[in-house]
Backbone:
């Protein structure tokens, strides 16, 4: 695997990454006792949240994804990119066991969350999902008031006191950069909001239960560019508190917001005509977009394929 | 047209005159007006019987209902048919009590059954059997349901309002199951997923997301079932008997209800009794109308809140 030195200058490539967090990376390294090279790819660092080992998912007899190995780190934004049908959503939904809801889905390999095998017999998907939240492709607020949408998760988790709930609702809505727009109409229906507001409400709803990780499956694909920009800014702010994993169709978005990027693609199966997705390359976003190790990645990011 | 397209000519050709936009006399337009006329006719066909029915019942029944008000609602039913004048209190109370008891029996059971079918059983064998049985039950004539309750309940415990409520509950149950299942099916899966993603268990999701989302539809289905049950005559004959005094205890002793009174009073040769039959019919229509309107208002309120 390629080793990248974060201090190395790739002058011409800095500008497309306005949010690139050089400082952040340096800080990480200074914490490391060893002066060990900034080995950002490959080795498992202390701050690994998820570790996927030979992950493979079948829907019935159809193998949708195979051989996904990666480490996802705390307080970073990891982006999944790739052509449609390559299994980005499928892999993402393995991380909070959302695939359990699909009767035909079967997960093979291992998904470790802080070293715990998520598909082990003693893991409760419900407990897991309190720690690993999710924002979906289409905004899906409950047909309830704005307040009740945000208060839903905390209530389920046993928060009863009205004043505690008020505080959580305000904090979460502020966290999703929505408070100022809705503070005067908390009791009105969530369905009366714009698409972008609904999606930020879904983010507020997810952070109200104080998860560690938030998974986002193409959170901006149903939104206009202005709403998209707001959510991208929000992701940058959220990264200090949460670990974000986003699926995106939009390479510019991955380049703008993420620290690391995983590129997936599909391969023709020898035994059937359906295509199976697989992970091609996982590295720092700057590297994926400037100097990818794999030819397929290069073709994809330069727009010659997919 | 020449092969060489002159730009001036082509822009001329693009000019649209008002005549181009005028409606064309075509078969399509004729068909459209024909269909509109047919729809108007269909509306009349539905409208005329309803108006005639309401007009007849009101003109023949209002007199006795409002004669020395509120005697109709409080007085006992005259024992002799030839007696003239109001008194339907026992039947009004009987109808309300028996229908209420039937609803208490059928609605919770029916909703739970529908929740099982749509959320747990789905396409499993057992669920298919339950679904089939409930549709068979829908087709059972009400008089047969009355006979059934007569054999299993009334023969042992004697005539009582509760027997009538059992028979009505048997008639309501499949209606409640079917309409509720239909409404639950309409709740989109993305709402369930949104709830699971917050760490909510399946049962909690059903209670706090699925049922509330389907609530307006479930309410109107149930009220329809209640309105239907309130008008049933045949099953009550075997099970509640027919008395002329109020029996507030549904669990023991014979009772009476409006449909039974309509039937028995209409089949006499006395004008006094016949007038009471019209009055009872008007009262019954008013009660069912009240339920239906309440249902609409409640549903509209809830939907507006979202
Ligand atoms: N519920 C499902 N049942 C069967 N096949 C599915 C299901 N969901 C996804 N797939 C298949 O799995 C493959 C990967 O899908 P997905 O993860 O949605 O890809 P992506 O999000 O990258 O577009 C596709 O071939 C898709 O048809
Ligand atoms: Mg997808």
Residues:
């Amino acid at each position: 695997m390629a080793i990248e030195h974060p201090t190395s200058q790739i002058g011409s490539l800095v500008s497309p990454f306005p949010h690139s967090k050089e400082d952040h990376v340096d800080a990480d390294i200074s914490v490391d006792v060893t002066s060990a090279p900034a080995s950002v790819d490959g080795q498992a660092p202390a701050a690994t949240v998820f570790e996927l080992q030979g992950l493979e998912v079948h829907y019935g007899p159809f193998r949708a994804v195979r051989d996904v190995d990666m480490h996802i780190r705390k307080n970073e934004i990891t982006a999944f990119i790739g052509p449609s049908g390559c299994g980005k959503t499928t892999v993402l939904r393995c991380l909070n066991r959302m695939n359990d809801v699909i009767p035909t889905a079967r997960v093979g390999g291992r998904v470790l969350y802080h070293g715990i095998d998520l598909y082990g017999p003693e893991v409760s998907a419900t407990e897991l999902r309190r720690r690993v939240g999710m924002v979906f492709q289409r905004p899906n607020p409950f047909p309830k008031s704005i307040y009740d949408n945000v208060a839903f998760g905390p209530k389920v988790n046993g928060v009863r006191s009205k004043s505690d709930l008020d505080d959580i609702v305000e904090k979460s809505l502020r966290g999703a950069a929505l408070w100022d727009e809705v503070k005067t109409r908390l009791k009105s229906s969530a369905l009366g909001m714009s698409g972008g507001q609904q999606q930020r409400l879904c983010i507020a709803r997810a952070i109200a239960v104080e998860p560690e990780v938030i998974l986002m499956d193409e959170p901006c694909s149903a939104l206009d560019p202005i709403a998209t920009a707001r959510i991208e800014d929000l992701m940058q702010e959220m990264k200090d508190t949460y670990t974000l994993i986003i699926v995106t169709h939009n390479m510019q978005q991955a380049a703008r917001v993420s620290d690391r990027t995983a590129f997936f693609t599909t391969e023709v199966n020898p035994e059937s005509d359906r295509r199976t997705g697989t992970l091609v390359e996982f590295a720092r976003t700057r590297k994926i977009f400037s100097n990818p190790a794999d030819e397929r990645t290069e073709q994809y990011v330069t727009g010659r394929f997919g | 047209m020449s092969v060489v397209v002159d730009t001036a000519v082509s822009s001329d050709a693009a000019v649209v005159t008002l005549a181009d936009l005028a409606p064309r006399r075509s078969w399509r337009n004729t068909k459209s007006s024909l269909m509109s006329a047919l729809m108007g006719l269909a509306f009349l066909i539905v409208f005329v019987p309803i108006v005639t029915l309401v007009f007849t019942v009101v003109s023949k029944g209002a007199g006795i209902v409002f004669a020395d008000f509120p005697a109709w609602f409080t007085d006992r039913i005259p024992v002799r048919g030839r007696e003239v004048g109001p008194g339907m209190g026992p039947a009004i109370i009987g109808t309300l009590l028996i229908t209420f008891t039937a609803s208490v029996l059928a609605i919770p059971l029916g909703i739970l059954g529908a929740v099982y079918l749509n959320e747990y059983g789905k396409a499993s064998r057992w669920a298919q059997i339950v679904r089939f049985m409930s549709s068979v039950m829908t087709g059972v004539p009400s008089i047969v349901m009355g006979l059934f309750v007569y054999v299993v309940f009334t023969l042992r415990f004697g005539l009582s309002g509760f027997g009538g409520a059992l028979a009505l509950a048997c008639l309501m149950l499949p209606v409640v199951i079917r309409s509720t299942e239909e409404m639950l099916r309409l709740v989109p899966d993305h709402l369930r997923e949104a709830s699971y993603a917050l760490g909510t268990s399946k049962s909690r999701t059903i209670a706090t997301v699925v049922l509330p989302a389907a609530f307006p539809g479930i309410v109107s289905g149930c009220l329809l079932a209640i309105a239907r049950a309130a008008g049933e005559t045949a099953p009550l004959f075997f099970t509640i008997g027919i008395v002329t005094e109020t029996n507030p205890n549904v669990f023991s002793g014979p009772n009476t209800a409006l449909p039974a009174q309509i039937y028995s009073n209409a089949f006499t040769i006395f004008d006094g009794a016949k007038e009471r039959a019209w009055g009872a019919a008007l009262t019954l229509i008013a009660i069912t109308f009240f339920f239906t309107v309440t249902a609409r208002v409640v549903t509209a309120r809830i939907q507006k809140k979202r």
Summary: Chain B has two domains: 2-63, 70-305.
